[in-house]
Amino acid sequence: MLRFHFTAEDLTRIRVATAPHPLWEIALSLHRLQTRDGRWAYAHWHRTARVRLRDAGLDQVVQGFLLPVFPRASYFPDFLTPAEGAEGLDAGLNAVLAARRRQVAEETAMLAGRVGAPSWVTRLVGSDTRGQLVRALRAYHEAVIAPHEERIGECVQAERIRHSRSLLDHGTGGLLSSLGPTIRWRHPVLEIAHYPEERDVRLEGRGLLLIPSYFCWGNPVTLADPELPSVIVYPLQRDPGPDPVSEGQPLEALLGRTRASILQVTATGATTTEAAQRAGVSPGTATHHTTALRNTGLISSARWANTVLHTVTRLGAALLTGSSPDRP
Fold first, then answer.
1. H-helix segments, 246-282
2. Is residue 107 within 8 Å of residue 79, measured between CB atoms?
3. For the chain, which terminus, N or C, has the lower number of CB atoms within 10 Å?
4. pLDDT of residue 323
5. Distance CA 24, CA 160 (A)
6. Omega before 188 cis (within 30°)?
7. Rounded to an integer, what distance in angstroms lies between the CA atom of residue 258 and that of residue 58?
8. How crowded is residue 106: how many other Cβ atoms within 10 Å of its Cβ?
9. What spatial distance separates the first Cα and last Cα of the chain, rounded to whole Å?
10. pLDDT at position 270
11. Helix, strand or coil for residue 165?
12. Which residues contact 232 (CB under 8 A, 6 or more apart)?
């Protein structure tokens, strides 16, 4: 179990990332390539990612260079997900290049000591090898993350909206209690169950940055070094929604333009008013369509304070992505 110990000052310094962190998304998407866990939720991404990596000639780079540096369910170096990544991909990759030699040496030695890790990872201390890694990360991002950036950003913004509602309605404790089933708030300690090690992190006034991640699935992740800025990278609190079908008309032909538009917006969660705005109809008309979508099992609806929040179901996600709802 991982435990974060808060002081009164820490409770005033909780922040939620304003945008996706590209380096964390790279790392966690590489984890998605190493497991079938949650595969159905990323069905569209998996199909297109494999094709794009092959077309870009990156298959061997990913298998032989990136996956060994980002092993799933194991340690990977903190310098690969620097805080500067919050400012964008370029800032993050520049920080990887500029990481202190001592930090890189210590962290790559830790990785090299793990079972199955290649010994060559210690060469990342050198600027040449690290430069190769940065170029590979940029090419990987361009091939399989960049095409989904708008979608990923929408999901993170929806999560920020959800947190703002929790904070306004239930305070800081409500926000910390709503982070997911494996995260439990017991004042003044935030506990993460099923963590691979027993660890206590005392924030001591540094605060905590919450980073909702599109590609994080299951357990949250944090940095290994307790001296670095404290972060928790955790899964979005709904299935990572499907990427909308292309401007294409198959979905509209099946459901009609208004209903198809409402189904798409529920992929990131939407109130009736938000769905109405997206579809360009009145709230009353939107209610009619959300009722029809709910009755056919394509969306689910839950009351949120004085509003109703609609989210896509697995069946609805399958319709949007063109995949089987039963496929793992």
1. 250-255, 257-265, 272-279
2. yes
3. C
4. 59
5. 17
6. yes
7. 40
8. 15
9. 28
10. 82
11. helix
12. 4, 179, 183, 190, 192, 208, 209, 210, 211, 220, 221, 222
115 and 20 in contact (C-beta within 8 Å)?
no
> Would you state the pLDDT for residue 129?
93
Answer whether 272's CB lies under 8 Å from 283's CB.
Answer: yes
d(CA 251, CA 317): 12
302 vs 310: CA distance, rounded Å: 7
User: Which of 222, 212, 144, 142 lies closest to 179, judged by CA?
Assistant: 212
Enter the tokens of residue 217.
Answer: 């699935």
Strands of the chain (E only): list them: 2-5, 14-16, 183-186, 189-192, 199-202, 208-213, 231-235, 270-271, 299-304, 307-312
What does the pLDDT read at residue 46? Answer: 85
* Cβ atoms of 52 and 59 closer than 8 Å: no
DSSP secondary structure of 105-148: HHHHHHHHTSTT--GGGGGGGSHHHHHHHHHHHHHHIIIIIGGG
**pLDDT interval class at 105 (50, 70, 90):** very high
Please give the model's pTM, rounded to 2 decimal places.
Answer: 0.75
User: What is the percentage of the chain residues whose pLDDT exceeds 90?
Assistant: 55
Higher pLDDT, 238 or 194: 194
Please name every residue paired with 210 in a beta bridge, in sequence order, or none if there are none.
16, 232
pLDDT digits (tens, 9 = 90+) for 122-176: 999 998 999 999 999 999 999 999 998 877 887 787 788 788 878 888 899 999 9
